[in-house]
Fold:
Amino acid sequence: MENNKKRITDYFGEYVFNDDVMQEYMSEDTYKELHEVMDSGKPLGLDLANRVAASMKEWAMNNGATHYTHWFQPLTGATAEKHDSFISIDKHGKTILEFTGKNLSKGEADASSFPSGGIRAVFEARGYTVWDCSSPAFIKKIANDRAILYIPTAFCSYTGEALDKKTPLLRSMEALNREGVRLMHLLGYNDVNKVVANVGGEQEYFLIDKKHYEKRTDLKFTGRTLFGSNAPKGQEQNDQYYASIKTRVSNFMAELNDELWKLGITAKTQHNEAAPAQHELAPIFCTANIATDQNQIIMDTMKKVAEKFDLVCLLHEKPFANVNGSGKHNNWSMLTDTGINLLKPGKKPSENILFLLSLMAVISGVDEYADLIRASAANPGNEHRLGGHEAPPCIISVYIGEDLQAVIDNFIAGNSSDVMQKQFINTGVNYLAELSKDTSDRNRTSPFAFTGNKFEFRMVGSSATLANPNTTINTIVAEMFSRIADELELVDERLRDKMVVDIIKRLYAKHNRVIFNGNNYSTDWIKEARRRGLRNIKSCVDAYEYLIERRSVNLFEKHKVMSEVELLSRREIYLDIYNKIINVEARTMLMMVKHEIIPAIIDYKDKLANAIIKLNKIDSTYSNVEQNLLKNFVEILDNIYADLLELERVHSQALKANTNRRKAILFRDQVVAQMEKIRVNVDNAEKLLPKDALPFPNYADMLFYE
Structure:
């Protein structure tokens, strides 16, 4: 690759309209005005927009851009774009290249073509995309060194409702900032003007050979294997995690890194994950909306780069049964414009009142709105992953570690002793450096774990956007900050220090039930969680219902993040998406069973029958093995066919349901259950069939390619 001979810093961000580019292409006044808008959130005037647009067009065209697009994130879960060229016609009929402030700031899309959950009728088509100036524009190179200018935007209806996942995220960031600054001022931090949510999303994924993918109907239509028995070896030897990376995969990762670095994405960490053919990429933290945008770019880039190496990138949460699924750990923290990390314990956490108060605000919010946290990670793919000893269970709890627990216990008891002193590990080898020890171990079973100076929300699925979980986390913490600030405003400034201590103790007493520092995979924890009153919401169909509870509506409306109409629409859309995904999976299974699996079994059964006939002519005792195999195949085939007819029946019944909620329940309880029955019999048939009789590549082929 051409960049191999360059330093990363020589080309990092070369496809991004970043701060350096803005200073180069803008006048000093325009640059300052734009930053005032970005920093203060004040409206972007048309005059400024025109000047910014002119600079952006010049830069983009200098990099080969011929078109621009408003890039947005509709409620489908994917991204959307419509390309417009810079070509225009002036009043004299002359062809010109034009990109105005209006083109930059606002676009129009057919809102009826995107899910709205009833917000918009089909004949009410108008929708708008609005530039998010806090997230940098970028270009994507296409054929012949041409490029497209991508402008990150929000997407709303003609009547102002959010039709995307980004608008509520931006609103939640404003809510967190508003309540965070308010609280900081009450605590005496008067120089703080901004509190920002910072996010780092760890992206897990699978890579398989394209030739195998092309022969798997289920992977092409559903993103996961609907059939497949275990390979002789899986992940039981724990020899995949952090193992040496295959050359082919290493080349893919190198190309991926280069493409992401050009786009200003700080791809930092890469390694093999737990399952065969599974890997992970993690970037450096940035603000929540930019992190969300970048994660969408990461997923898209992964897919495109994989094609160059005849690989296919699988982002489904569970593409292969009985091996580790893929998640997207959402690392979340809060940072002020003065450089304070609100979740950093410091050298003496027992005396760090700001940290303890912020910690209790998060813990309290997670406990009180656990159902919304669970709903924020709910999607059909995650159903196959959560609770499977490869991801957290569906019970929301918080891990803080023994050391931090001791700090809190001492604080509650009025003991100022600090137990989080820096400790060191002696390896027993003299020439190895002494290792500083973290204040707590890592708990890989907890859904919401404190990890030193941030929280790691581990339930998010690999295919999901980061927008939903961070919208929810931002909003519930804003609510807790608001309640604390309300209390502090009622007392004299001189009494606030004592009040803060009382608040910390009271919040801990009320919400410590959500803290669990043990093994979340243990069956004992399920019983203990039930005793504590913590919900175990196993199905996304059930999780979506919590979006429209009155207390949820009140929360989101109070902080102007989402209205009741927007929440109702999302519940309806998510149920509809669930139904469509299960419908596609059921139809794919029916097609594969009818056209691939049953014919393959019949062909081999006929071969066995013919072999038995030939052997019986010699001696009937010679055909015992073949006869037993034939009996097994006849039995399996009968079971598959009976289950097939039942799947057709329950699938047809589910499709007739008159509401999305009723349809989703039928799909979950009957269709999915029947699909599992078919899979068991098909997988049993696969174990008996010779490899050359299989109609598609098996798990061994796909997971252990060269």
Observations:
- The chain has a mean pLDDT of 92.
- The chain has 22 helices and 19 strands.
